[in-house]
Write a structure and sequence with these properties.
It is a single chain. The chain contains 8 helices and no strands. The protein is mostly helical and about 800 residues long. It folds into 3 domains: about 90 residues; about 290 residues; about 290 residues. Helix 2 packs across helix 4 and helix 3 runs antiparallel to helix 4. One of its GO terms (cellular component) is myofibril.
């Protein structure tokens, strides 16, 4: 890698040198050109040779310029290619460096693991060996003791044996080899133990970090749950207030319906009273007609009485008395009907007052209902905002729960890793125990060998041994040598097992390397994915900027539409104002008309009262005439009686006429008195007829007054209906005007808010998009600069890999 980097640097320096040379040549050519021009100016010769030389120099200069441009282009192309090669080489170097670092980290991790396991084994070995004296020291002391003994007897030639020398040398070599191997294994076990302890500390630290993060996540979850409960309480309060408002609204609607039902009932009662009044008027008219019929019947009876003087006077008197009673009953019924009519008019006025009160209460309830609807709409909007806040809190709570579950899973994974490591430690401890047992076996073998050596040394005497004993000793030594060979083979087997364990460790290291390479590849893919996402985000931001521009255009179009709608609303408001003015004028005219109708009604009431007073006067006069007629009837009866007596006396006088002239004179007087009585009767009948005519005139005047009263009442009712319609129209127009004004104000406020919010929001969005674009561009530039900053990136990757290893 360093050689390739050095080659690339050399190429770059050579290119820089070539570029400098080209620049120097260009500068020299320019200087020569300037010198030639100065020479031409100085000489001032215009010869053909100079022109040809000048042309040649210019051609050479143009060729040189072209060549320089071609060289510069080629140099730029070569420089770009070199840059590309350099970039690719740098990328390859960074990749190789990262791979080497990954391999290094994997090797270090495996090394630390092996060192920790070896350290565990060495610690256990040390603990096992501290309980007893080291075997190699014992062996060494025994061996030195044996060697001293051999040195003592070395002057004896019979005791010198090459077999003993070989045995001693072999024993010493075996002891030293075994000692070196045990030292190596002890060091390896110590290293493994240290690595395991470091890894255990790292795992404990990770566990503490995870517990701290879990505690933070639980605290955040509790805070979010408390906020959620608070928002739920607020939502329940809003729901209760909404239910209370709904109940109040329902009660107001129910009361409004009750008021409308009461108003309808009062209107029905008013109609019933009007119908009863009409019925009373009809009955009064019938009574008047019956009265007129009775009067006509009285007149007929009077005519019959005048025509038929032969009818008995008692019957006439009885009929006259019955007619008088009937007239009295009719008068009583008329008075009763008049009282009923007055009561009905009073009831009508009271009902109208109640209707007005109910109308006012209905308007009040309508206003309260509108206020309740506005409050309900406001509460619904508040409820919607609270639901949105609740959704946001639920989302954040879900995120916190997800983080908590993730941390819990990480904690469980770490616990599992810890358990696996504990099991691995237990297996290593078992292996250590096995090694200790094998070590004890080897120590027992060593002690046996030492005892045999002592026996061999102790069984020698001063005279020496026989050949048979020597052969026996040689055989024993050969058997011991075989045993030592076997122990050596066992040690070789142990070394082979250690080599196999080393191979397994190498395999594990290779697996860890592969795993780390895969993880780093996934990390690189993640970085690439982030880069693609950033590019995609840049494109999306550009699209959002275009969308914002489109939205700005749409907002301008909506503003134009709102301006047009506002102008239309203003025109409608002006039309409504004109209609309101017209309706106010019509209302004034109707009020004037109602005042005129009231005056006419007052006049008609006065005329009715006058007619009633005239009717009362006529009734009084009628009663007087009836009394006079009764008196006249009585006088007529008396005159008839006197007439009959006079006739009888006349007859008697006529009979006695011849008797005396005095009787003739008396009869003449009676005849004259009878004629006077007849004339009085005619006068009385004429006065009765005159009174009856006056009564008929009064009745016709009364009927006309009642007709006028009915017409005025109908006109008044029509005027009231028109007035109510006009009032409702004016109220409706006023409400429409108010609503239009409200809509105009709302539209203006909305336009202002839209302008402010749209401008601010667009500015903020544009600034945010520009910032995000700048950030993405900076990120892209940073990513492009990352290739040039290999060392810095390498350190970052080292830190990231260390963090990943800590997390793993």
């Amino acid at each position: 890698l360093e050689s390739t980097v050095q080659e690339l640097r050399d190429d770059l320096e050579s290119e820089k040198a070539a570029r400098d040379r080209a620049e120097n040549q260009k500068r020299d050519l320019k200087e020569e050109l300037e010198a030639l021009r100065l020479e031409l100016i100085d000489t001032g010769t215009n010869s053909e040779a100079q022109a040809e030389a000048l042309r040649k120099h210019e051609a050479e200069l143009s060729n040189a310029r072209k060549q320089l441009e071609v060289d510069a282009a080629a140099h730029e192309i070569a420089l770009s290619e070199l840059r590309k090669k350099h970039a690719t080489a740098v990328d390859a170097l960074t990749e190789q460096l990262e791979a080497m670092k990954r391999v290094k980290l994997a090797v270090e991790n495996s090394k630390t693991q092996m060192e920790t396991s070896n350290a565990d084994l060495t610690n256990q070995l040390n603990t096992a060996l501290t309980a007893k004296t080291p075997w190699f020291k014992v062996a060494r002391s025994d061996w030195f003791l044996a060697s001293d003994r051999l040195k003592i007897h070395s002057y004896r030639p019979s005791l010198y044996c090459p077999c003993n020398l070989f045995i001693t040398r072999f024993a010493t070599t075996c002891v030293y080899v075994f000692r070196a191997e045990t030292e190596k294994r002890r060091r390896a076990l110590e290293q493994k133990l240290n690595a395991k302890m470091m890894k255990l500390e790292e795992v404990e630290q990770q566990k503490a970090d995870l517990e701290e993060r879990l505690a933070k996540a639980t605290a955040e979850g509790e805070a979010l749950s408390a906020a959620l409960e608070e928002s739920e309480n607020k939502l329940s309060k809003f729901a209760r207030s909404e239910a209370a408002n709904a109940t109040t609204l329902q009660e107001l609607r129910q009361s409004l319906e009750d008021e409308t039902r009461a108003k309808l009932a009062i209107q029905t009662r008013l109609r019933q009273a009007e119908s009863e009044r009409e019925g009373l008027k009809d009955s009064l008219e019938e009574e008047e007609q019956g009265k007129m019929a009775l009067e006509k019947h009285v007149q007929l009876l009077q005519q019959q009485a005048s025509c038929s003087s032969k009818s008995p006077m008692d019957d006439v008197k009885a009929k006259v008395a019955e007619d008088a009673k009937l007239l009295e009953t009719l008068e009583d019924t008329r008075k009763r009907l008049q009282r009923d009519r007055d009561e009905m008019s009073n009831r009508n006025e009271e009902l109208q007052a109640q209707v007005e009160k109910l109308e006012k209460s209905r308007k009040k309830l309508q206003g309260e209902l509108e206020d309740a609807n506005h409050a309900l709409a406001a509460q619904r909007s508040d409820q919607v905002t609270n639901e949105r806040k609740l959704k946001k809190l639920e989302a954040s709570l879900a995120e916190a729960q997800a983080t908590a579950t993730r941390l819990q899973t990480e904690k469980d994974q770490n616990d599992r890793d810890m358990r696996q490591r504990e099991t691995a430690l237990l297996t290593k401890e078992r292996e250590l125990e096995e090694l200790q047992e094998r070590l004890e076996d080897s120590e027992r073998q060593r002690t046996n060998l030492a005892k045999e050596l002592d026996d061999l040394v102790s069984h020698t005497d001063d005279a020496g041994k026989s050949r048979i004993e020597l052969e026996q000793n040689n055989f024993k030594l050969e058997t011991q040598l075989k045993e030592l060979h076997q122990s050596f083979e066992e040690l070789e087997d142990e070394m082979a097992q250690l080599a196999m364990e080393k191979q397994r460790a190498d395999l594990q290291i290779n697996a860890l390397k592969a795993q780390l390479e895969r993880e780093l590849a996934t990390k690189d893919e993640g970085f690439e994915e982030q880069k693609r996402q950033l590019q995609k985000l840049n494109r999306e931001l550009k699209e959002e900027l275009e969308d914002e521009k489109k939205q700005r255009l749409n907002l301008s179009q909506q503003r134009k539409k709102l301006d047009a709608e506002l102008s239309e609303v203003k025109q409608r408001a002006e039309v409504a104002d004109r209609q309101r003015d017209e309706f106010s004028k019509q209302l004034k005219r109707l009020q004037l008309l109602s005042m005129d109708l009231k005056r006419e009604l007052d006049a008609s009431m006065k005329s009715r009262d006058d007619a009633l007073t005239a009717a009362r006067d006529l009734e009084k006069r009628l009663r007087a005439t009836e009394s006079e007629r009764a008196q006249a009837v009585e006088d007529l009866a008396a005159s008839e009686r006197t007439c009959r007596t006079a006739k009888s006396e006349r007859d008697e006088a006529l009979e006695e006429a011849n008797a005396s002239q005095s009787a003739k004179y008396a009869s003449l007087l009676l005849y004259l008195s009878l004629n006077l009585l007849i004339e009085d009767k005619k006068k009385l009948e004429a006065t009765v007829m005159h009174r009856e005519e006056e009564l008929e005139e009064a009745q016709t005047a009364r009927e006309e007054a009642e007709d006028r009263y009915k017409r005025t009442l109908s006109l008044m009712e029509q005027a009231q209906i028109d007035l109510g319609l006009e009032r409702s129209n004016t109220q409706r127009l006023e409400a429409a005007n108010v609503s239009l004004e409200k809509t105009v104000k709302e539209l203006r406020d909305k336009m202002a808010e839209l302008e402010k919010e749209g401008g601010k929001r667009l500015k903020l969005q544009v600034t945010a998009l520009e910032g995000r674009l700048a950030a993405t561009e900076e990120q892209l530039e940073a990513e492009s600069r990352e290739h040039q900053k290999a060392a810095r990136e390498a350190r970052r990757n080292d830190k990231k890999l260390k963090d990943l290893m800590q997390m793993v």
